[in-house]
Amino acid sequence: MFVLTMLSLAQSAPGYKVVKTWKLGGEGGWDYLTVDPDGRRLFIARSTRVMVVDEDSGKLLTEIPDTPGVHGVALVPEFGHGFISDGGEDMVAIFDLKSLKVLNKVKVGTKPDAIVYDPFTKRTMEDGRMRGADWPCDGSQEPPIVCRVRRQQKNGHRRRRQRESDRDT
């Protein structure tokens, strides 16, 4: 059984306390959690799908299916889209924030993992575990698309950088 405890890691941190605990059933482990403050929803990456939970009641609102190897969700409310890193298919799924229906899937390279949206640059960036192809990453396009943040080895330490063409922007 899947147990989600709000601020579970904060149990030992001073000034934090557990305020709600929800029991959500279902198969598979979970990865990143993403909060939608405007819609009061919690997006939970669950192995092959994304669970969408009401932030106040803890009730399951719906699931976004067919996302094998899902790791995370990035929300872009200003454009009405969300992005799901779909590591099992080497894709990022783009979905509508109102209907929660997948609009498109974009091939992104190997094993997309963490995914974030930067409102300043209007870019959605995913961090793949393995080196992959580059692609445009303007979040304001219709449909918006993502770019990869590459991991490189330098002097034995891993560091991250954007595509070379993005460095000057």
Could you characterize what this model shows?
The protein is an all-beta fold and 169 residues long. It has a single domain (2-166), classed as Methylamine Dehydrogenase, Chain H. Helices cover 0% and strands 46% of the residues. It has no helices and 15 strands. The chain has strands at residues 2-5, 21-24, 33-36, 41-46, 49-54, 60-64, 70-76, 81-86, 91-96, 102-107, 114-118, 123-127, 146-148, 150-154, 157-161. The strands form five sheets. A four-stranded antiparallel beta sheet has the order 3-4-5-6, with no helix packed on it. A hairpin with a 2-residue loop joins strand 14 (150-154) and strand 15 (157-161). The radius of gyration is 17 Å and the shape is globular. It starts with a strand and ends in an 8-residue tail after the last strand. 28% of the residues are buried. Residues 1-11, 130-136 and 151-169 have low confidence and may be disordered.
CATH class: Mainly Beta
Largest sheet: 4 strands, antiparallel
Q: Which structural class do you get from the secondary structure elements?
A: mainly beta
Which CATH architecture would you pick?
A: 7 Propeller
Ordered list of secondary-structure elements with their pairings:
Layout: E1 2-5, E2 21-24, E3 33-36, E4 41-46, E5 49-54, E6 60-64, E7 70-76, E8 81-86, E9 91-96, E10 102-107, E11 114-118, E12 123-127, E13 146-148, E14 150-154, E15 157-161
